[in-house]
Write a structure and sequence with these properties.
TIM Barrel; 29% helix; Lyase, Ornithine Decarboxylase, Chain A, domain 1; 22 strands; 2 domains; binds ligand LLP; eight-stranded parallel β-barrel
């Protein structure tokens, strides 16, 4: 038997001509559960987590999985059991993570637009920290906490004005972005927070963007953040924890982000050098924990030759895999069964009634109706962003652990989609 691994999908490999995930053949999973089907490798998730854990050995550091990347309950359960905390951005995410077995004391709450009701729910649950993104939010959170007779633990999200050199829609740490409090106003914001009886300052945080593939934006943001900590502490406000957000990229198309442990070796060396090595550290990675751990298996419906383009129409679409349509993102597309037959160049598209419904442009494939393909690196920001557009049920999901496949989400039915609607 020959084995050939896939760059960007470490726990997926061809054994002879069949694509496997861990010990299972993907085509068997597709036969059992239908398509489109998300398939995740548990070992791949834990492997990605272990790179952070190695980097933080001997430190006071905690990984808060940014669950927006993939919030399926069983995925959350994997990370909760592995000792992670969670970064949430809504009361819905809090309910999900609690349903997956996590304790609110391991949860931090990010986002620019928390509602009063969400603040209340999170305070009553007893979350570890609110990552506050504006001065107005400090005031509202203070009022909500006082009205409940509670004190809200807060960290202020700093906008360090560094360019993460990523897609503009997922870059968040530049002056023109809606996120965080400007570097220049941070001290004032901390002084204001410290004066409010319903708040307790516990940390500082920043998150500069997503799919970051170089170290330098992190180093720049780190230095700016430490300058601020020095300033804030000199003003008599102690900062207990430092939270550096998420953002580390993955390999979609030959991308070469630093490994998490290599990135953190550099960041920790700088923290040590500046005397902050013993601080409580937090991070909020999402994509780098789950992105390469998942694929979306889809069946070719029709081959449609055209004058300018040949189309390979598959049964997954922009509602299941929104990243190409939203960010012109590249995902590798590979067959479940290798063959020597000649390839042709196709635009791989879905059935949704939009020209923006494409999954890959100009892909060389040997594909016929009925063949199955895997869209790689689909573990992050695919199922969690999937919609019901065109009244398409969202796919089923399977989590593979060695030679065991767990159906972790049933395929959504039309009845599921109509639940909660009312005729007049
Ligand atoms: N922390 C905060 C405050 C965030 O806003 C995010 C992501 C993360 C952590 C996790 O970032 P990660 O490690 O996953 O890069 N839908 C886009 C990505 C949006 C990221 C939003 N914020 C995509 O598909 O590329």
């Amino acid at each position: 038997m020959t084995t050939h691994t896939l760059p960007g999908a470490p726990f997926f490999a061809y054994r002879d001509s069949d694509l496997y995930v861990e010990q299972l053949r993907l085509s068997d999973l597709a036969d059992a559960h239908g398509t489109p089907l998300f398939v995740y490798s548990k070992a791949s998730m834990l492997h990605a987590l272990s790179a952070y854990q190695r980097a933080f050995a001997g430190r006071q550091a905690k990984v808060h999985y940014a669950m927006k990347a993939n919030s399926s309950l069983a995925v959350l359960q994997v990370f909760a059991q592995a000792g992670c905390g969670f970064d949430i951005v809504s009361a819905g995410e809090l309910a999900r993570v609690q349903a997956a077995g996590a304790h609110a004391s391991n949860v931090i709450f990010s986002g620019v637009g928390k509602t009063r009701a969400e603040m209340q729910t999170a305070l009553q649950a007893g979350i570890a920290c609110f990552n506050v993104e504006s001065e107005a939010e400090l005031d509202v959170l203070n009022q909500v906490a006082l009205s409940l007779g509670k004190v809200a633990p807060v960290s202020i999200r700093v906008n360090p004005n560094v360019d993460p050199k990523t897609h503009p829609y997922i870059s968040t740490g530049l002056k023109g972005n809606k996120f965080g409090i400007a570097h220049e106003r941070t001290l004032q914001a901390y002084q204001h927070a410290a004066s409010l009886a319903g708040l307790k300052v516990v940390g500082i945080d920043c998150h500069i963007g997503s799919q970051i593939t170089t170290t330098s934006p992190y180093m720049d943001a780190l230095d700016k953040m430490l300058d601020l900590v020095e300033l804030i502490e000199a003003a008599g406000i102690p900062i207990h924890h430092l939270d550096f957000g998420g953002g580390l990229g993955i390999n979609y198309n030959g991308d070469t982000p630093p490994a998490a442990d290599a990135l953190w070796a550099e960041l920790l060396a700088r923290l040590d050098k500046r005397g902050f090595g013993q601080r409580q550290l937090m991070i909020e990675p999402g994509r780098s924990l789950v992105g390469n751990a998942g694929v979306c298996v889809s069946e070719v419906q029709f081959i449609k030759p055209g004058e300018q383009k040949n189309f390979c129409i598959i049964d997954a679409a922009m509602n299941d895999l929104p990243r190409p349509a939203m960010y012109e993102a590249f995902h590798q597309i590979v067959p479940l069964k290798l063959s020597d037959a000649p390839t042709q160049v196709y635009d791989v598209v879905g059935p949704v009634c939009e020209s923006g419904d494409w999954i890959g442009h100009d892909r060389a494939l040997n594909a016929q109706a009925g063949d199955k393909l895997a869209v790689l690196s689909a573990g992050a920001y695919c199922m969690s962003m999937a919609s019901n557009y065109n009244t398409r049920g969202r796919p089923a999901e399977v989590l593979v652990d060695g030679d065991t496949a767990h159906l972790i989400r049933s395929r959504e039915t039309a009845a599921d989609q109509m639940r909660g609607e009312h005729l007049v």
